[in-house]
Amino acid sequence: MVKKILKRHMRMKGLSLWLILLATFNVAHADDTAFKVGVTTRDVRPAEPYDWRGAKTHVLRAMIWYPAEADVQEEPQWIGPPFVPYFSAGRAAPDAVPAAGLKRPLILLSHGAGGTAAGIGWLGTALAAHGFIAVAVDHPGNNARENTVDGFSLWWLRAVDLSVTLDAMLDDKTFGSRIDPARIGAAGHSAGGYTVIAIGGGITDPAEFQAFCRSPRADESCKPPPESSDLQKRRLVRLNSDPEFRQRYAGATRSYRDERIRAAFVMAPGLVPMFTPESLGRISLPVAIISGDADEIVPPASNASALAKEIPHATLKLVPHAGHYVFFGTCTLAGRVMLRAACRDPEGVDREAVHAETVRSAIDFFTAHLR
To answer: Is residue 314 part of a domain?
Structure first.
């Protein structure tokens, strides 16, 4: 990489060349972990009124992973009950001093439906270890702590959560001065992948999804998870009986594009049939998509592969035999016992190897496009 830059710019004057080299070394490559990782939290308080989607918690709870000073002591990150956690999410040092250096790129992370910010920590820690700052937020009414009809229905408002979190990060007294506002990316899993496409310019129309599910192409994407079937029924009741809810639901067809987002990395994206093909065809930012080719929740044909066909210049990587939950954290023994669906990968699939491949792809993608 450095040799290519030197050859390309060999005729430039010394100062310009050194600036290019410094920017290149500021973000390490996937095979060159350069930093210890710190982790901290923030309660982001948007300006009111804010659509909290029926959630009782009126803050956006965020987790931040970042390059830390070399002498910090990293600890394992766990997800689940304190003494019997279900998932591992990498290693990080709580509230560590951020590493000094040039301004860094920021990656916004979005969890899947019913997930948490911590659940995507395996990617957040890896990004931080390679020189990025990463921040994930619990989406109101659509996380493991609170699931509401509104949170399950008003998917597009997740993009607003990311934009508000980005505002807060740029204003943050610790991280604001350490972020390069010209190098902002986003990554997400499942409904988080949908969220990243929405903030990248995809426009939602629920009628598109309804038409898909009435067509011969209908697949598992049309079936809500068992734990969400009641929420879907209650949504239909609200649409028929609640004018205020119908008005908010009509906000789906607005654009939630945030022009500050310059690159999007999506893992096993869901809800793709809800996007209008015209809006996907107008997405101009670089998009990388990775999914298991045996995804049982959001089949690639109608989601990841369809997205790659509609978005100009999007790239697609299908992981052989992998399912939807391979992009969750690595399961502990307790997780494999208590959460069998989320922790059981198809025979021959190594979740940690898939994570390593995904991290390499994400690091290379963001390094290439956030320069």
So the answer is: yes
